[in-house]
Design goal:
Number of strands: 10
Radius of gyration: 20 Å
Distance between the termini: 27 Å
Order of helices and strands: EEHEEEHEEEHEHHHE
Shape: elongated
CATH architecture of the largest domain: 2-Layer Sandwich
Oligomer: single chain
Number of domains: 2
CATH superfamily of the largest domain: eRF1 domain 2
Structural class: alpha+beta
Helix content: 25-40%
């Protein structure tokens, strides 16, 4: 399970975590014990756990049921069952410093590739220097897109999958997915975007697990 915390200037703090379907029941038990029990509400955003002390947890499945809903005696059990299904997805992570590609099932890469890239950061310089920098940066981005698209074609062609999960730099990932060679994969249903650092091997493994897990957003009670 990975976790990130974000707190605005106002309102309750919100923590985001990813919980595997097999561990969801245990997580819910700990949430209940910490917050004095909860009630379950099913709405369009996902499954909400409304705790007695005012805390709230929004649980979202990693993929739609697509006619294959989870089985179980209650909403939590059905969500855990849905998240535990061995569905396959293609993972495309790209940032200025690197890329990570994988075909994933049950949180584990079946085929994968990571690599280093380089695209310069923006600069505040002006005039001809700025123009030369912009051309150089554009050339670097074009080279990155070509390289990642070629590697994605090799990795994605090794295994079949039904969903696509992009992550990292949205603009760069979008450019890669616009490459003509990846048209068949860009047309697949897309799952929730993953915000990741430069995709080294460890980052790719974590992203693979997160992409197949229940996304949990916990809001603490207002003071």
């Amino acid at each position: 399970m990975t976790e990130a915390t974000a707190a605005g200037q106002r309102g309750p703090s919100v923590r985001t975590a990813y919980v595997a379907g097999s561990r969801l029941a245990g997580w819910a038990e700990r949430f209940s014990a910490a917050h004095g029990g909860f009630q379950v509400k099913d709405d369009d955003d996902g499954l909400r756990l409304l705790a007695s002390d005012g805390a709230e947890a929004l649980l979202q499945a990693p993929w739609p049921d697509d006619g294959r809903p989870g089985r179980g005696a209650d909403d939590l059990a059905r969500l855990a069952s849905l998240a535990s299904q061995p569905r396959r997805l293609g993972l495309l992570l790209v940032r200025r410093g690197g890329y990570g590609l994988a075909v994933v099932s049950e949180g584990l890469p079946l085929a994968s590739k990571v690599g280093s890239t380089y695209v310069q950061s923006r600069t505040a310089a002006g005039g001809q220097s700025q123009q030369r920098f912009a051309r150089r940066r554009s050339n670097q981005a074009d080279a990155l897109v070509e390289s990642v698209a070629g590697q994605a074609l090799r990795v994605f062609g090794s295994e079949s999958f039904e969903y696509l999960v992009p992550g990292g730099d949205r603009a760069l990932a979008g450019l890669v997915l616009q490459h003509p060679s990846l048209a068949r994969y860009a047309a697949l249903p897309r799952l929730a975007y993953l915000d990741v650092p430069d995709p080294k091997a460890a980052v790719l493994r974590t992203a693979a697990a997160d992409a197949c897990a229940v996304r949990v957003q916990v809001s603490d009670p207002r003071p």
